[in-house]
Amino acid sequence: MDRIKWDDYFMAQAHLLSLRSTCQRLSVGATIIKDNRIIAGGYNGSVAGEVHCIDDGCLIENGHCIRTIHAEMNALLQCSKQGVRTENATIYVTHFPCLNCTKSIIQAGIKTIYYAQDYRNHPYAIELLQQSGVKFEKVPFDANHIAQMFLDEA
């Protein structure tokens, strides 16, 4: 069996995390990497201990669910809680980060964003990434290809 490529491995982790999402509108996962090691992961869902969208519906205000904390933010907060530095790290996300997550990623010192799907790519988020020198790249991800690798091995 061929070894899985690093990009596929880390993006698969982000997709796996998205399966824990409790938001009914969009399941997102994020994995933060440093020196080819996973330092944190997150998915979109409610504040710990609070009602989840899957249990009580989304809490919509101005077209956004205000109950949900985004996957990228949850991953960054996990680093903060554990005292793990994100300077020069990389983040793999299932979807292009929203404007607020983009700003947080930049402030956290993350230098590269890999994402699998476009999702409301905000022009100002793109402008901020370009101005700050944060590399962002859409990388193809095929879950069926990854699954087939396991089936071929069996």
Question: How would you summarize what this structure contains?
Answer:
Its cofactor is Zn(2+). Zn(2+) binds at residues 70, 98, 101. This protein has six helices and seven strands.
Question: How far do the termini sit from each other?
Answer: 10 Å
Number of helices: 6
> What is the overall pLDDT average?
93
Number of domains: 1
Structural class: alpha/beta
Let me know the largest β-sheet. 5 strands, mixed
Q: What is the strand tally?
A: 7
Please, what is the CATH homologous superfamily? Cytidine Deaminase, domain 2
Helical fraction equals 25-40%
Keywords:
alpha/beta; zinc; ComE operon protein 2; hydrolase; 154 residues; Competence_ComEB; two-stranded antiparallel ribbon; 7 strands; five-stranded mixed sheet; 21% strand; Cytidine Deaminase, domain 2
Topology:
Layout: H1 6-18, E1 29-34, E2 37-43, H2 53-56, E3 60-61, E4 64-65, H3 71-82, E5 90-95, H4 99-107, E6 112-117, H5 123-132, E7 135-138, H6 143-153
Parallel strand pairs: 5-6, 6-7
Antiparallel strand pairs: 1-2, 1-5, 3-4
Helix pairs in contact: 4-5
Architecture overview:
- This protein is an alpha/beta fold and 154 residues long.
- The chain has a single domain (6-152), classed as Cytidine Deaminase, domain 2, CATH 3.40.140.
- It is 38% helix and 21% strand.
- The strands form two sheets. A five-stranded mixed β-sheet has the order 2-1-5-6-7, sandwiched between helices. A two-stranded antiparallel sheet has the order 3-4.
- Helix 4 (99-107) runs parallel beside helix 5 (123-132).
- The longest helix has 13 residues, at 6-18.
- This is ComE operon protein 2.
